Amino acid sequence: MAAEQYMAIARKWRPQAFDDVVGQKHITRTLTNAIASGRIHHAFLFIGSRGIGKTTTARILAKALNCTNAEGDAPTVSPCGECDNCVSIAAGNNIDVIEIDGASNNKVEDVREIRENVGMVPSSSRYKVYIIDEVHQLSTSAFNALLKTLEEPPAHAIFVLATTEAHKIPATIISRCQRYDFRRVAINEIVSLLKNILAKERLTATDEALYAIARIAEGGVRDAESILDELITYCDREITFQDVFDVLGLVAWQSFHDLCDAMLTSNVARQLEIIEEVVAAGKDLSQFAEDILRYFRNLLVCRTADSSEILLRLPEAEIEAMNTRAKKFTVVKLIKLVEQFAELVNGFDSQIAQRTALETLLIRVSRVDAEISLDTVMEKLLLLGKGGIAAAGDEAAPPPNPR
Predict the structure, then answer these.
(1) d(CA 358, CA 340)
(2) CA-closest candidate to residue 150, choices 132, 124, 123, 126
(3) Residue extents of the structural domains in the chain
(4) Alpha-carbon distance 323 to 310, whole Å?
(5) How far apart are CA 63 and CA 46, in angstroms?
(6) How far is CA 250 from CA 140, 166, 244, 291, in A?
(7) Concatenated DSSP letters for 79-112?
(8) Class for the domain spanning 187-248
(9) Is residue 338 helix, strand or coil?
(10) The predicted structure's pLDDT at residue 367
């Protein structure tokens, strides 16, 4: 017997109903209300970053419009997932639901072919649904050809245009579509999704590992699922926080602690040694700089928030180590460091420029000069506004001598 064909997690557990779509309640609610009320627009524009559910939602919409098991032979907000139309749409081979890659079908001839075929009635469905992914990559002439179809579409045709770069789409196209802006998914929602997937796969992972995956995915569901897929292959046991670092090739947390300690003691040589170790290990410096930024953001959370454990979702030992270091910085100093590293991350380009910029910034923030004195002054002013400098551990000022 042939082995069962492997299917990636993102495909295996792709949402099949509106309720399954994670983090886009504002969109699924609007679509279900439109279907229930019969106010179905002929063109939709789905906007958002990659891997957050645009194409998936488009397929669910196509199933809702064409499910043959719906009551009253009308579109339904709850497609059955079992009829021929639902199964074939989910598999991507329904003859009446045409998925088009805008990047490779961006010529005017491709759009003209759509115009020629759109007038043909559906073969086994209520609607012909055209899903054009990465629609912003169409040429100007292709957009002009598409515009005519969107102006006077046949009653049986529905267009779903998906894009990651809405600013590249002509205003004339946008004005003829209902616009839906997909949001990056919150960390907690991604973690809940990953837990559900692991439960179905009969696997386990620590909360710290799942939160690490969610943070790295930066709101992208597909990225999070791809990372989880890789970790499942790597681990033959429970997925741990350290496994995430090992699989993704991230810089170990101890390196950030060492860098922080070197900055606290103004040990420039040690800071440059850490960068050399990161480069020698083949790590990406731009990612390293982002991780430094994230590290100091976490220190700022530790320094200013009472519930840092809930906000950080890191292993207990790491939070304890960060709390210890956070207390050695003033709030003003941490804010300034976060701002400086954020500026550095935004300006990264080539590898040599990255290294030079990172080393220069570390040297600059380590110098005992007027900048640190200014930080001290600002901290004193903040404490004065809260009722006195004595709160910072300074000796109380003596009372004025009576005369």
Answers:
(1) 10
(2) 132
(3) 9-181, 187-248, 253-385
(4) 14
(5) 17
(6) 42, 32, 8, 9
(7) --S-SHHHHHHHHT--TTEEEEETTTS-SHHHHH
(8) mainly alpha
(9) helix
(10) 66
d(CA 116, CA 282): 53
Threshold 0.90, pTM exceeds: no
Fold designation for 253-385: Zinc Finger, Delta Prime; domain 3 (1.20.272)
For residue 361, is pLDDT > 50?
A: yes
* Each residue's pLDDT tens digit, 67-81: 998 877 789 999 999
pLDDT one-digit tens code per residue, 270-298:
999 999 999 998 888 888 998 999 899 88
- Per residue in 177-195, pLDDT (tens digit) is 999 999 999 989 999 999 9
Here the tokens at position 211 are 């939160």
What are the pLDDT digits (tens) for 283-338?
888 889 989 998 998 898 888 887 667 778 788 888 889 999 999 998 888 888 88
Q: Nearest 5°: phi and psi at 44? A: -120, 140
Amino acid at 291: D
Contact 292/259 with Cβ under 8 angstroms?
yes
Q: Are strands 97-101 and 43-47 parallel, antiparallel or unpaired?
A: unpaired
User: How many degrees, rounded to 5, is the angle at CA 164 between CA 63 and CA 128?
Assistant: 25
Q: Which residues contact 256 (CB under 8 A, 6 or more apart)?
A: 291, 292, 295
Q: Which CATH superfamily is domain 9-181 in?
A: P-loop containing nucleotide triphosphate hydrolases (3.40.50.300)
Give the dihedral sign, CA 331/333/334/340: positive
Question: Partners of 128 in the beta sheet?
Answer: 157
